[in-house]
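Record type: ASSEMBLY
Status: queued
Input:
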Amino acid sequence: MTRRRRRGIMIAGALVVLAAAVGLVLAALRESIVFFHTPSDLAAKAIPEGQRIRLGGLVAVGSVKRGEGVDVQFAITDTAEQVTVRYRGVLPDLFREGQGVVTEGALESGRVFRADTVLAKHDENYMPREVADALKEKGLWQHGGPPPGTGTPQPAVEKK
Amino acid sequence: MIVELGHFALVLAFLVALVQMILPMWGARIGDVRLMGVGAPAALAQFGLLIIAFSALMHAYVVSDFSVANVYANSHSTKPLIYRISGVWGNHEGSMLLWVLILALFGAAVAAFGTNLPETLRANVLAVQASIALAFLLFILLTSNPFERLDPVPADGRGLNPILQDPALAFHPPFLYAGYVGFSMAYSFAIAGLIEGRTDAAWARWVRPWTLAAWMFLTVGIAMGSWWAYYELGWGGWWFWDPVENASFMPWLAGTALLHSAVVMEKREALKVWTILLAILTFSLSLMGAFLVRSGVLSSVHAFAVDPKRGVFILAIMLLFIGGGLMLYAARAPSLRQGGLFAPLSREGGLVLNNVLLTTATGTVLVGTLYPLALESINGAKISVGAPYFNATFVPLMVPLLLALPFGPLLGWKRGDVAAAMQRLMIAGLLAIVAAVVALAIVQRGPWLAPFAIALGVWVVAGALSELAFRVKAGNADRAEVFRRLRHLPRSVYGTAIAHAGVGVMVIGIAATSAWQSETILTMRPGQTVQIAGYDVAFTGVAPAEGPNYREVIGLMQVSRGGSRITELSPSKRQYNAPPQATSEAGILNALAGDLYVVLGDEAGDGAWSVRLYFNPLVRLIWIGAVIMFIGGACSLSDRRLRVGAPRRARRRLPAAAPAE
Amino acid sequence: MLLWFGLAVLTAVVVAVLLRPLLADGAVDSSSGEARDPAASTAVYRDQLTEIGAERARGLIGATEAEAARVEIARRLLAAADSPKGTATPSALRDVRALALGLAACLPVLAIVVYLALGAPGQPGQPFAARAPEGTGTSVEQLVTRVEERLRAHPEDGRGWDVIAPVYLRLGRYHEAANAFQQALRLVGESTDRLAGLAEAHMLANDGMVSEAARKAYERLRVLAPDRMEPRFWLAVAAEQDGRLAEAEKVYAQLLTEANAAAPWRPTVGERWRAVRRKQNLPTEPVPDGTAESKPTSIAPALSREDVRTIQQLPEEERRRMIEGMVAGLDQRLSENGRDLEGWQRLIRAYTVLGRREDALAALARARAALSEETQAQDTLTSLARSLGLSS
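Status: finished
Output:
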């Protein structure tokens, strides 16, 4: 075998692997990525029931209801719209009313969101990224400044 | 005073790095020995100064000197001593200081133990290494100075995030950084080699111990991070394909490829162009990891824009070193001479396959990590790319790699005999099939792919052992002969076999725990018993307790099996004082067959609590596998071949020992 | 002084280390430097040759492969030996001494300049342990430390929590303040001050967001002290944050209508009101106005949050005096212009709260007289009197 032919075989082999990988990536990106939506998006767009999405916003104050066993129901709001979420399981430590949260799951009939994953904010300074961005878009959160909902008069914030 | 001394040492280290970057490289260019000679003492001085700076900061943490802004922001006077120490690198500024300290440690190791290197190569390597240190020291001094002071001094600190108050934090970041930063050596060697036009088999051998050491540290660092996430986050998961995890995983994949391609370069002088490129890319991925984690781009695209100084600075560093490296590469690579010939089916061919698959896999992880960021900055759509994506792309690439893995070491250089290799792997193949059948018989549930994955793991382990058996002629020679051969086998052969077996062990663990994890979530009243995976777990109630800087509620769980009591697990919910934050501590029972993992949820009223229980079969094998890989690396690192190359061999110590110090 | 000495020593050592190779006798280095370079790579190749020998001896590779490999390595060996590299000369740079001198001069100067720009050489280290035990001092921090120690030992000491809570609030330790107020409320009992403090601490701890805990505290406070302005305002902010804009707007408007023109918080509330209107796409002019003579004026403290806080921290006596001053002002205004039902209601309620029953009864009578033509007003006054226990 000549040097060129050997090289040719190897380059062809590498290209086959690469092509396979590109195919896998494209297929996976089409099928397994999950879009993030806010309650307003759900109201505005027709998102089919059963499609896997992430829903994020603030846990509406006073909405958390514990049902049988470990069933929990709460509402996610982005201050304009509100969506009821059902979840079965243990809520994360930092899950609190009025705080940011991201859930993953699918819509059920009756516009109820059935979540199988609930991610609360990670630490005291962190708000789930998508939630923060979505709230910012609504003008409720100024950059670097205080968190959602505070376009409030801010003599209050003297915190260092 | 100690704080200020540390600050001054940091400034001085910056200037020394400047000298170390300019003089040795200039000396190598004009051939002046005295200028080149500055490199080694400068590297040692830089390391010494950073030790002073780092110790000063650590001292400030230990004595809780809240006049230091960094201590105030991340520590508290009631924090236990160990977390005051590990808290030094539990924050941005401190971790950057640790980063440059380790960078300087590698530089100093080359200065101290690299006497087997040609003078000019060593000078250039030290200069390139210093240029990296210079960039990061400038970054620290300008944007992330850990020695900033506060006046007036606050009464007490704000405390460390409780999730970080864990013994794992003491070890995980230093190991991870030693890995990340260790690949800077491969980069420095590559750039120095390109500058000099010296990229030959000897170069590959010189760069190998550094790459190997970095790879070992990164392996253990990632495994520790996974273990920590497993028991701390309370979700029973050991890998989340989270961007931060991916940031450390990509350099690992590329570094693994580099280790293998450097073997070809060392033995046959082939794949030169590719190996040099891989060395540059591996460190580039490390830099990208630093950028992703440190710039805040992950927590929010907007966070990056809010405090642009840090993010833009790291981005600039990254572009400078990646761009500069690749430009030099583009200019010099065409002039590199071709190396030895080999057939596609040969040891070299196997290593090429390894490289193709590993780098492609790195690419898929890269796409999955960056795609959401790219999409969002293009059209604002917010998506998350999670486990399903990676399972669909990364895993299929690993299957052929694992299938082919046992063949590699059994093939000869230049031209391999596949039929002979197959014959030698017969037993391994049989064992794998038996394992699949046994797995199917025992569990009888879960995805059909799971037994296949178990078989794959067994195949890799048995294949690695088959290689050893073949080398010592086990079965063909008498016992004394086998024993003699075992003793005389080069340690690198052992290293290869052990590391490969570690991969197999890890695959078994991953397959078993992913496919057959069982999970129960329920509300338990005191006295209630629940069954999971053959265990009876009885909830007897909760008890309050108090720690040094937290209060907690402990759930009391009696675990028994077949009527005999095994142990008591005490998962708890903690409320820390400063900062006030809640965490869950899982109760974990380790057994041979797997982990029983219990998490206490919320109070459901009437003394009932929600409880989450998992049984994770064979999950420990994942981390045991990583440790085995580390041992394999260490074994290979201690091979005498890596010490060869200097005229005065007797006087020197092991270069291998250097990075471990 | 000691610091400067330390810095000087450190700099001197570093400069010495860097200069040593530059000033070393060139001849010694050059010989080894010249010899080393090719030697380094040839050593590697020689080793590879021996390795092949060993592998051949163990039968790991065949004779032909071994021979081929040997040829390959020998070729590399020759190439390395021929390599022109390593012809380093010690004298390539003539002015090494000048360079060394320049380095010795520049390095310390640069280091000091950069350090002075970034560092704080005058500030001593202040370890926690060295600061705390000076127990005789009376700085706020030392007091806090002592109270904290006591509370660690006796966590059920409600008075301690009560003392430390406002101090935490003032020091900016909001989370701890919230916790302390909570403990004080639990152990000592409910009071408007504690509730106000608790709510404020929760809010400040959340960067100005009216959290669930703050909202509950304000709601309770509104029940206990309906005349205070701040629960109404912050609950409106909470409503706004929950997206109930119309509701928030209504309260803001009410506050503005009741406000004294000179009230320092007026512009803030006005700003909020405008913002809420904007969000609902409503016109933002004119701002509701209570400054006309005829409009009622609230007795709620016409004060900024700072002032409220100051008042809360005043001694009981002074605070009472201040509030009474404000009530007197309202009384005065109503005497001049009595056609203000709401103002009368406030005045009557205020006198009752202050325990001045006689004045309350007098005010009731005056209100009845001033509003004698309005039957609806009379009914309201009657029911108010009944609820306050003023009706005979």
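Annotation: Residues 645-661 of chain B have pLDDT under 50 and may be disordered.
Annotation: The longest strand of chain B covers residues 535-546.
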